[in-house]
Amino acid sequence: MELKVGQAKRLEGTITVPGDKSISHRALLLGSLAHGETVIENFLQGKDCLATLRCLRQLGVKIEEEGEGRLRVEGRGLGNLQEPEEVLDAGNSGTTMRLLLGVLAGNPIFAVLTGDASLRRRPMDRVTLPLKLMGAEIWGRQEGKLAPLAIRGQRKLRPLEYTSPVASAQVKSAVLLAGLYAEGETSVTEPALSRDHTERMLGYFGVPVKREGLTVRLKGRALLQGRPVRVPGDFSAAAFFLAAAAILPEGRVTVREVGLNPTRTGFLEVLEAMGARLSVEVTGEWAGEPVGNVTVESSALRGVEIGGEIIPRLIDEIPVLTVVAACAAGKTVIRGAEELRYKESDRLATMAQELGRLGAKVEVLPDGLIIHGGYPLQGSRVQSHGDHRVAMAMAVAGLVAEGETIIEGAEAIDVSFPNFPTLLATLTEEARGK
Ligand code: S3P
Q1: Of residues 89, 196, 316, 414, which has the active-site annotation?
Q2: What is the pLDDT of residues 165-200, one digit of tens each?
Q3: One domain, residues 197 and 345
Q4: Which domain holds residue 423?
């Protein structure tokens, strides 16, 4: 599918965005392991979360769809998943594969997991390694590094004190989920704080998770109690519209009921440092997650230097941040972001290449990017590389570029934000009509 985006001067409106991808996955997974029912509202019906839903059904979990974004999950309790008859297909979703491996490690069944070509290239040893230390048997291509993977879990796992070499919420979550099946305390220490949705939702389901600095711990064999979960809007989806508002000459976008978990909102800190006019209002808490409204207005932006602990807190926003930086005055330097090479595409390479096609000046570093902002962008044909966030970031760039930008492979957007093209068209048309 091609997505065509014309230059727009103006983008205005108040919107909500679909439910958070990370939280939707976790609500399904924890709901499946809990006692009693979990009703999920505002579940993200993107391909990634639907892959988790399908896999859990194959594992014997009863999940009913009761309407637009409303699911009823009948929890099976810990250790009661059924052996799947067929291969589990995680599609494009790293979260599905890695978190499910953590859960499967504690169930005495055999399962095979695979995914699409992109997922089969992504490193799985970062989770298979600690899970093997806990007692799971796992086989895969390149000595367990790549999917397809086969796993045989154990009824009882060994607790683990794990120091993760990467700041990854997927690694942390896989180990914590496996830790639920271990007798004793399991801990994960990460080099910088990654998104903490698993810890928060475990707490919400009644499992105490202790945090000391960069270490989180839980005691295994605790009971999870099913609870209603209303999923906040996805901050990473909102970021595309917030970015667009900041860089267009007449932009003003408010996103309501969006998740404002500080482990996810590093992008707002960077926008602010670049000189963006923005306001944030926390209005409540949904299932242990802060929720509120964010407004961003058209702003004169300047380049910044970022790196260090903020990187995991804005990791999924770096593609669109690259676009913002291309529209800012001066140089932006992003360092310490080598993790981007292991996402749905090598996002350092793909963003530099595709933004370059529009005339942006982007240099690739081993662990980041240097963006020389302020060069005029010219509409062109660009590629998504099968990566939803690259596709949407390029659509935002297309709003600024003169003429028309055509994004090839735009169907990748369905992974996390199926109504993105419609919402973008609505906001730009409404603004044009004014
Ligand atoms: C996610 C964690 C992040 C993020 C991904 C979702 C999660 O990946 O990029 O989109 O839901 O835990 P890593 O844990 O690999 O950094």
Answers
A1: 316
A2: 999 999 999 999 999 999 999 999 999 999 999 999
A3: no
A4: 2-19+232-432
